[in-house]
Amino acid sequence: MIPEPRFAIYLAPEPHEALWQFGSAWLGYDAETRADLRQPCLAGVAPEALREATAHPRLYGLHITLKAPFRLVDGFSVTELEHVVEDLARRHDPFGPFQLVLEARKAGENEIFLCLAPAEQQVALHRLEADAVVALDSFRAPLTPAEMARRKPDRLGRRERAYLESYGYPHVLDAFRPHISLTGPISPDAPLRDALAERLAAEPELLRLSIHSMLLFEQPEPGARFHIRQRYLLGA
């Protein structure tokens, strides 16, 4: 059986920028080069603890989600998807810089995950996300029962469940909460939280983000890491 790839539309810092370099090293993976990276040494944090805490976001690479991972529906090709993403990027101008803040968000019972999120709502970002979610949905194959179950629909509110059924992902449109995930689920009192906060406080340039391009990510087969297939300059 031929592996079925998945695609996603993400935003991310440009590869030469400090946030991309730091964030990729933090995760231990560069989605641009597909290289494993040495993770930073943190006082009071064992290397294996950082490796474990970053396992989930490492699978996806450093990003902000616009269109969550999806399989192509029968009848559409990757080339057609690329053309539509390129046109989508052309319709929107670059924006930023804007300020990011470190947030600890709930990740199930008695757990959190750490992420960077805009300090204030970014109208251009929300407009771009809404366009991507709707314009690209005709390319998305319906969720399988297993994929639907992984989203735990019974734990979602009515609005988020409706979005999951309509667009394959619950946190879209007016439920969109943009962020860059830096860990998977961890304990709220994990020393990793303070270590990351100290690092970010020492390097304030890591908390500024400008958006210049839209990225098409690809996962070649289940369980493989996502990588950047193509970058599309906004407004180009």
Please give a handful of descriptors for the protein shown.
Cyclic Phosphodiesterase, Chain: A; four-stranded antiparallel beta sheet; alpha+beta; 236 residues; 10 strands; 33% helix
Question: Could you outline the blueprint of secondary structure elements for this entry?
Answer:
Blueprint: E1 6-11, H1 18-27, E2 29-30, E3 35-36, H2 47-53, H3 55-60, E4 64-70, H4 78-90, E5 95-106, E6 112-118, H5 123-135, H6 145-150, H7 158-167, E7 180-181, H8 191-202, E8 208-211, E9 213-219, E10 227-233
Q: Your description of this structure?
A:
The structure is a single chain. The N and C termini lie far apart (39 Å). The chain has helices at residues 18-27, 47-53, 55-60, 78-90, 123-135, 145-150, 158-167, 191-202, and strands at residues 6-11, 29-30, 35-36, 64-70, 95-106, 112-118, 180-181, 208-211, 213-219, 227-233. It has eight helices and ten strands. The protein has a single domain (6-233), classed as Alpha-Beta Complex (Cyclic Phosphodiesterase, Chain: A), CATH 3.90.1140.10. The longest helix is centred in the middle third of the chain and has 13 residues, at 78-90. A hairpin with a 7-residue loop joins strand 9 (213-219) and strand 10 (227-233). Strands 4-1-9-10 form a four-stranded antiparallel β-sheet. A four-stranded antiparallel β-sheet has the order 7-6-5-8. With 236 residues, it is α+β, with helices and mostly antiparallel strands. The chain is 33% helix and 24% strand. The model has no long low-confidence stretch (mean pLDDT 95).
